[in-house]
Amino acid sequence: MEIPYTVDLRPDTGVYNAKIGIWLFLASEVMLFGALFSAYILLRVGAEPGLWPHGWLDVRLGAINTLLLALSAITTLLAWAACKVRQFGKFKFFHACTILLALTFLGIKSYEYHDKWIHYEIALGSGPEAGKFADGHLVEKSADFDLAKKTGTVTLHGHFVADRKELMDLRSPAAQAVQNEELTIKAADIAKMENYGPKHNTFTAIYFTLTGLHALHILGGTAVIFYLWGPGSKLWRRDPERFTNRIEVSGLFWHFVDLVWIFLFPVLYLT
Amino acid sequence: MDDSVAQFPPYRGPEATSDHGDHGHHAHPEPSFWSKYIFSTDHKVIGIQYGLTSLSFMLFGFCLMLLMRWQISHPGMPVPALGPLLEKILGAPAAGGAISPDLYNSFGAMHGTIMVFLGVVPLAFAAFGNYVVPLMIGAPDMAFPRINMASYHAFFLGGVVMLVSFFIPGGAAQAGWTSYSPLATTIPTNGQAFWLIGMVLLITSSLLGAVNFIATIIQLRAPGMTWMRMPFFVWAQFVTAFILLLAFPPLEAAGVLQLMDNVAHTSFFLPTGLAVGGQLADRSGGGSPLLWQHLFWFLGHPEVYVLILPAMGIVAEILANNTRKPLWGYKSLVYSVLFVGFLSFIVWAHHMYMTGMGQRIAMFFQATTMIISIPSVVILTCLFLSLWGGSIRINTPMLFALGFLPMFGIGGLSGLPLGLAATDLYLHDTYYIIAHFHYVVAPGTIFALFAGVYFWFPKITGRRMNEFWGRVHFWCSFVFMNLVFQPMFFQGIKGMLRRMSDGAANYSAARVHDAIDTLPGTIMELNTFILWAAIALGLAQIPFIINLFHSISYGEKVTSDNPWQATTLDWQTPTPPPHGNFADLPVVAHGPYEYSVPGRREDFTPQNEPLTEPAPAPAPQPQPQPAH
Question: Which residues pair with A184 in a beta bridge?
Fold first, then answer.
């Protein structure tokens, strides 16, 4: 038994099965990310005045990542075109580029995550700066540092602020003028210490969720493209047409993932 | 795709030539048990997998409900017979063999979840859709057989996660099947996290299924099977698949966000200043509980149509077949179902009139809700009018299909007061709601599903289910369904709230005597009445269960591939259909319901019967003929 139109086009619809399948899948993906972007809008509109962060992310890194994904979209297209004109070598080259670009993207993304992970905000309950907040990147924790037992010290590269709202808009001239220095804080003085992880506030929560889900898509797409580039490319010798279709379908998914980033970048980094 | 993956059931069938009489379990390089039943890519096997699994889940969900009904009518008293067992399995929440309020909440949440996501949807959409749709459109299989298999496996895993959650410390999710935040996040057990992970698996499963169905219907229709020659059942499944495809992802998004709230301690749905147990919660705040409800009901309402449209499709097929005349208003049915599908996406907030989302939004959703009742009524009216002037054949599937019509009618009409904000404010969260949506789903959809089981059983197994016990099943179910749900309307109108683990005993005791909102004793006594009706309803299912399994091996054999003398392609295959379905590629030359066409030899014309008129021999794309 053969299922019709797995490779050939059905005359009245003009497509093969998998192409309909991937477009339907992408439609549901649009609804998935659409819901998440709606959530972002609602949370941002509903945020208390002055408590939605601006400029917390590094625009340069985001821009580089945008460029990487845009380039990978081009190499994906060229890889498919190479298959269409039956140039297998070129296909190998272009999709190797795609995979490298995707991995670089994930590398930069991990660096950004790490940067948030070691970024701490410390509310001081006692000591010389009581009532203030220390904000900065972790330099080191002393060996005996223990918040619960109130022993040891922690060193941040950062500065003190009197009001948390001063930490919200890092694009403001005041924030730009801040001089960071090494601050050593005793555990005994700390009322609350929290890194810029998802639970820090609604912005970091939606930032990690949106980009995390996107990164999972990148990871999945890369895995598929890597499979088709490596072991899966054996199909090329048996049925080049079918292989080309696979490259097209995986490429459509990849373009969608790129497109999501094109929305994520301005929404999270630029506003 | 290889031919070694055989059909279900393994015996019988026209081409079982090599091993007559020894039930075909060896000889031949037979596929192993695993590749035949567990890792099968045949749409019919997958349909049956879905069918048996979801029927089991429905029985389980029903049992949860019986336990809850016991607790409602006998609050705090040990469950008879089962009490010690419950305590042994579930531990502290069932201390003394009684159902604690926490356990009651668990059962309530899981009853809803299981019935909707593991029972009715997989049965109506995945089981019937998988088995019947490819047959009806003349396809050899689904467009993506392996994705189809993955869909079932994801569904099964999701079910396992849901079941496992009963046994973790603290038990299963307790925040209702709607899982409203902040409650769902602040309950200090892990049940909700399990629920969310289970839901993500179920959503994945339905996504894979929906993509497959739509692609199959668009791409694999047999030559001549034009859109307007598709049976109504296929149209209903087509629209259902689109609803699942587009409405489920927002719930998946919401599920991911709530999972973050529960596991990573974010505050997507937790407002600023949330207090838990009298203390300010250690949360950043800034989230929105209303956001969860919007995202949930964006799925939740279309989901109602996922439950009902396949049922309408089944009823339409059975009515046309047993009235021996074409469906009345086929085109109106098709356009109505498309319109319902579209509108179902913009009515969701009528579940949220009580949330304080604002009058203007309520007005909008009230208007769309009234509008969506129009195509629904068109569909029901067409089905009613189809009966007019037919020489109606009464059999078990037809009885269930006929039972569906008034029952769904009651369910639908009792929904109107809930769609209008003014009356909903009073009825919201009372037993009236419970009665309303159960009338839609239980005697409505589930009756249609029973009808479908009795109707397609001969095609699946080559044997009929017992007619007498089928009728016993119908009449008992019909009577007891109504005895269970009808009293709830009265309870609700009198102000009895849902989700109270003691059946409103405390609530009614705390009220001022003779005040307008006091629950009269008669209303409270109905709890006991409903319990007995529910038990009777449960007993009424026993003939069905025995009939179903007994008839697989011992039912009366059918003598023809088309025992109901039906027109659609699913009956023009060998019985049971082999892998690949059709002996020859069917070429469709007729509309779906050419029954009793004057001047024809028989009172039904199969869709693939070659044209006898002076037309040329059936070409791959024959000229469309007038419908009848």
Answer: A155
Q: Backbone dihedral region of B356: left (phi > 0), alpha (psi from -120 to 50 degrees) or beta?
A: left
**CA distance between the termini of chain B:** 38
Of B207, B230, B253, the residue at which a domain comes to its end is B230
Cβ–Cβ under 8 Å, residues B191 and B165: yes
Residues in chain A, pLDDT under 50: none
DSSP per residue, B43-60: HHHHHHHHHHHHHHHHHH
Beta bridge partners of A193: A122
Cβ burial of B241 (10 Å; 0-12, 13-18, 19+) is buried
Give the pLDDT of residue B621: 52
* Residues found in chain B: 628
**Structural domain harbouring B145:** 40-230
For the stretch B403-440, pLDDT in tens is 999 999 999 999 999 999 999 999 999 999 999 999 99
What does the block give as tokens for A170? 């890092």
Residues A56 and A58: their CA atoms lie apart, in Å, by 7
Residue B31: its pLDDT value, please? Answer: 79
In a domain, B301, yes or no: no
Q: Do A21 and B246 touch (CB under 8 A)?
A: no
Tokens of B186: 């602040």
ipTM of the complex: 0.96
Element (H, E) at A133: strand A133-141
In chain A, which residue's Cα lies nearest the Cα of B292?
A39
* Chain A closest-CA separation from residue B233 CA (Å): 21
Cα of A149 to nearest chain B Cα, Å: 20
Please report whether residue B5 resides in a domain. no
The count of structural domains within chain B is 2
Which residues lie closer than 8 Å to B444 by C-beta, 6 or more apart?
Answer: B308, B311, B404, B407, B408, B411
The single-letter code of the amino acid at B137 is I
User: How far is B481 from B439, CA to CA, in rounded Å?
Assistant: 9
Best mutation target, B219, B246, B252, B581, to test chain A (most A CBs within 10 A): B219
A17 to chain B nearest CA, in Å?
Answer: 6
* CB < 8 Å to A34, chain B: 249-250
The verdict on residue B6 lying in a domain is no
Residue ranges and CATH numbers for the domains of chain A are 25-116+201-270 (1.20.120.80), 120-195 (no CATH)
DSSP string, B392-459: PPP-HHHHHHHHHHHHHHHHHHTTHHHHSHHHHHHHTTBHHHHHHHHHHIIIIIIHHHHHHHHHHHHH
Q: Where are the alpha helices (DSSP H) in A47-118?
A: 59-84, 88-117
Picking from B2, B43, B185, B218 by the largest number of A CB atoms within 10 A of its own CB, the best residue to mutate is B218
Q: Considering B230, B256, B277, which residue would you say is the last residue of a domain?
A: B230
CA distance B246 to B242: 6
**Dist. CA B557–CA B562, nearest whole Å:** 12
> Which of A28, A45, A213, A242 to mutate to probe the B interface, most B CBs <10 Å?
A28
- Which residues 248-307 on chain B approach chain A with CB closer than 8 angstroms? 248-250, 252-254, 256-257, 260, 264-268, 272, 283-284, 286-288, 291, 294-295, 298
C-alpha to C-alpha distance for A163 and A183, rounded to whole angstroms:
18
Q: How far apart are the first and last CA of chain A?
A: 56
Say if strands A181-186 and A133-141 run parallel, antiparallel, or are unpaired.
unpaired
pLDDT at residue B28, rounded to an integer: 53
